[in-house]
Amino acid sequence: MRIGLVCPYTWDTPGGVRSHVADLALTLQEHGHSVSVLAPVDDPSQLPPWVVDGGRAVAVPYNGAVARMNFGIKAGNSVRRWVRNGDFDVLHIHEPLAPGLSLLACWVARGPIVATWHSAHVRSRMLSAGYYIAQTAMEKVRGSIAVSEDARRTLVAHVGGDAVLIPNGVRVDAFAADGRLPEITSAYPTILFLGRIDEPRKGLDVLLDALPAIIARVPYVRVYVAGPGDLGDQHENLDPALAEVVTFLGRVSDEDKARALRSVDLYVAPHTGGESFGIVLIEAMAAETAVLASDLPAFRWVLEEGKSGALFANEDSADLAAQAVRLLNDRSAREQLTSAARIRVREFDWNTVVEEVIAVYDSVGMPGEKVTTDLRGQIVGRLGIRPVS
After folding, report:
1. Which domain holds residue 256?
2. 31 with 350: CB under 8 angstroms?
3. CA-wise closest residue to 53 among 11, 99, 106, 95
4. Distance CA 218, CA 212 (A)
5. Cα–Cα distance between 35 and 24 in angstroms, integer?
């Protein structure tokens, strides 16, 4: 089968959707399918051969964050050219109403189209204001997938229709492999934070606020922060008393992310909202690292209400500190969590999940039918989107 995948977010920046698309593409190829991915790209020199440059991204406010996406006339032309050259049996569009390549693909392509919903919006001004656009774009989607119940509810509330629930996948064996990150010490208790460091909903401030209480009970603790963002601002704003404890690793590759997860005693996910799944929790579980996460509904579901990962009250630094101290000082408690996680994570192994995705592809295709382009006009101007300065 020839499969086209559309990722709306820039390929150069780590994120849950981008990781999902990359892992799905690799797994489909391992199962004998031909795959091409279209995504915005800032540095085309580093692309794998199965990713097509969808143009340079700009910063756009979306889903409570600032996402890097590509839109406009050139982007529309890139989508048309990629669809025409790809000769796809199925087009799989991720975040179909994200203002960029995904929404454009919904508009310019026709034929067997599948859409996956990743985000959970409590309220979405963009989707509410663009209800007509959403409806007309989704008319051509034959199969819808939601990665979580929260994502499915977003689809139902804002657009209508329904979706089959297929969770995010993780290449479990890649995270369970050997190898540590040399920058992370093995001499002291260690904590890891992963995420965009200047995005408030990722909760880095909640972790930093908890650190003095953690240090008081675990004096030799070391905290490693990995992810893109302005490191200069972080160093400038960091309490000098924490400078010796906190190390900023900056942006890390997928391989180094896996090594970092395998190198620490505790992975902390202090996200404050806007999460529909929590793929990074699954990655930490696959790396056999104990997880401590805020009690967001999506995180509670992934962690089985605390069975395969510990939980703390959302945005409560004192509770985060208490739970972190308990786990760092109790190796058997961490091992109990990782033992349960080892079983849980197999449910999300891409080798299992991909069969469900392929079943959706089979359900929307018709013998001999291909994805083609539609000559309808561009709609970017109607969205009223402005790049972030």
Report:
1. 172-347
2. no
3. 11
4. 10
5. 10
Q: Do 151 and 23 have their domain in common? A: yes
Q: What is the CATH number of the domain that holds 224?
A: 3.40.50.2000
The DSSP bridge pattern shows strands 58-62 and 65-69 to be: antiparallel
Angle at the Cα of 28 from the Cα atoms of 375 and 261, rounded to 5 degrees: 115
| Number of domains into which the chain is organized | 2
pTM attached to this predicted model: 0.81
339 and 234 in one domain? Answer: yes
Asked if the structure places residue 387 within a domain, the reply is: no
User: Is there a single domain that holds both residue 159 and residue 300?
Assistant: no
Strand, helix or coil at 267?
strand
Give the distance, in angstroms, between the CA of residue 237 and the centroid of all CA atoms in the same chain: 27
DSSP 377: P
| 118's tokens | 């990743």
Could you tell me what percentage of the chain is helix, strand and coil, using 3-state DSSP and rounding each to the nearest 5?
Answer: 45, 20, 35
> Phi/psi zone of residue 208: left (φ > 0), alpha (ψ -120 to 50 degrees), beta?
alpha
- In this structure, are 184 and 162 located in the same domain? no
Listed in sequence order, the DSSP H helices in 196-316 are 204-217, 231-237, 254-263, 279-286, 297-302
pLDDT along the chain (389 residues), means of 10: 94 85 96 96 89 80 58 79 94 89 88 89 51 67 90 79 89 87 95 91 95 96 91 76 91 91 98 86 96 95 96 98 98 98 94 95 88 61 38
Task: Based on the fold, state whether residues 140 and 227 are members of the same structural domain.
Answer: no
* 388 within a domain of the structure (yes/no): no
- Sign of torsion over alpha carbons 39, 108, 126, 273: negative
